[in-house]
Amino acid sequence: MSQDTNTIDAPPARPSFGYGLYLLISGLIGLIASLALAIEKIEQLRNPLGALSCDVSILVQCSANLDSPQGALFGFPNPYLGLFGFACVICAGVTTWAAPAIARWYWLLFNLGVAAGLVMVLWLISQSVYVLGTLCPWCMVVWAVTIPMFIVVTLRNLRDGVFGAGLRALGAQLWPYAGLLVFVAVAVVVLLAQLRLDVAGNVFGL
């Protein structure tokens, strides 16, 4: 009975060293960007009339995003969510090296958390591009980390049987295209920003 229970609780395949390294690096990049945004928010509160270091132009800036209602979705600055969320990503990456076997529910909850992060990022992208009309540099770093992370984590979990043995074949078929899917997803965001804000013209003078 205990053997059957372990088979149900643990994923069929142990995450590789490279997967753990990917999560660690992605988490560190996201954490640094969130920390930079949190510092900028503190500076904005200290000096409301001053320009922030990430304010490059009217289009590329942090001030408008941080000072908007969208910048505090749950009543406190969004960067604090990033500090917590990306710290969890770092822990997940290190856990893949430290634990000999990790229960399936752990990766399911982790995937759910990454999916929640993606939903929030997509909403923030829509607000930034279509409502505020600005591109926050550090926010874009968070976007660039979260979107690929969701694709990689989800496809890896599919491939390794975290969502059940029945979906392993689908994961195995999609996994080789992870890079392409990331490219397409990022390209769509870039295209939407270009069509709405004319980034190439306003930033690069093209």
UniProtKB/TrEMBL annotation:
Where does the protein end up?
A: Membrane
Spell out the GO cellular component terms annotated for this protein, sorted alphabetically and separated by semicolons.
membrane
Keyword Transmembrane carried by entry = yes
Entry's transmembrane regions: 20-39, 80-99, 105-125, 132-154, 174-193
Q: Which GO terms describe its molecular function?
A: oxidoreductase activity; quinone binding
**Record's Gene3D superfamilies?**
VKOR domain
Task: Name the keywords, alphabetized.
Answer: Disulfide bond, Membrane, Oxidoreductase, Quinone, Redox-active center, Transmembrane, Transmembrane helix
- Please state every residue range assigned to the domain named Vitamin K epoxide reductase: 16-157
Q: Does the keyword Zinc apply?
A: no
**What membrane topology term does the record carry?**
Multi-pass membrane protein
- A Pfam family (short name) is VKOR
What family does the entry list? Belongs to the VKOR family.
Entry protein name:
Vitamin K epoxide reductase domain-containing protein
